[in-house]
Amino acid sequence: MDNTSKLLRIENLQIYKGDTLLLSIEASVAAGEILTVMGPSGSGKSTLLSWLSGMLDPAFRASGKLLVGAQDITQTPSHLRRTALLFQDPLLFNHLSVSGNIEFGMQQGKSSSKKQRVLDALACVGLSGMEARAPKTLSGGQQARVALLRVLLNEPSVILLDEPFSKLDSQLRQATRELVFAQIRQRGLAAILVTHDQSDADAAGGRVINLSTTGADKQC
Ligand SMILES: Nc1ncnc2c1ncn2[C@@H]1O[C@H](COP(=O)(O)OP(=O)(O)OP(=O)(O)O)[C@@H](O)[C@H]1O
């Protein structure tokens, strides 16, 4: 793989908490690739995602660079980065309908074409006819799919997945995972998946970074 095909590049990243080095990473992710990050509790997985999304807590200090394509976005504020986060909790707004949730944050455009895109996307993930429903009336798996569409229709270049399947039972987990990974590959996004689950890493099929236990919570 040459450099031009690497959509996301993390160069010489070091994150410190006080004087302690929490993590040190050099990595690249191609369009459509899913890089998995694993490691014990406290090893810095969520901290890494915070840095990637531009929301590192001031308790930490980071050095290194983050590039998307040729653009250095290390200092770019979080709301101007085309990075999207998908969490284990779908975090849907209950005062908005399913389509209102998906349209939230979509790029400017004609309202009628936005609506059609939402309807097409809902049909794609098996949620036809659910556009007017309140999120709380959907099952956990259906909510997960709405959360995915909300992120995807915002057209990110990079998607950060923080244990997004961990609240789903095993059958639903597998189906949702296949859908999410297929969308990532079809749309050519660079993805970073944080998980504790080896089957997630196997399904992602890409490289795996194991954060060391250096900064991890010590066991008694
Ligand atoms: N806002 C913060 N201020 C100070 N320390 C923090 C903060 N957030 C996390 N930490 C500490 O930084 C270390 C890394 O935490 P982080 O949440 O990144 O670990 P993790 O690998 O995601 O853990 P888990 O698998 O349990 O979610 C831990 O020791 C944690 O206690």
UniProtKB/TrEMBL annotation:
Tell me what organism the protein belongs to. Glaciecola punicea ACAM 611
According to the entry, every stretch annotated as the ABC transporter domain falls at 5-220
For this UniProt record, the keywords arranged alphabetically read as follows: ATP-binding, Nucleotide-binding, Transport
Highest taxon listed in the record's lineage: Bacteria
Q: Which GO terms describe its molecular function?
A: ATP binding; ATP hydrolysis activity
A Pfam match is: ABC_tran
Signal peptide feature range:
none
Put simply, this protein is called Spermidine/putrescine import ATP-binding protein PotA
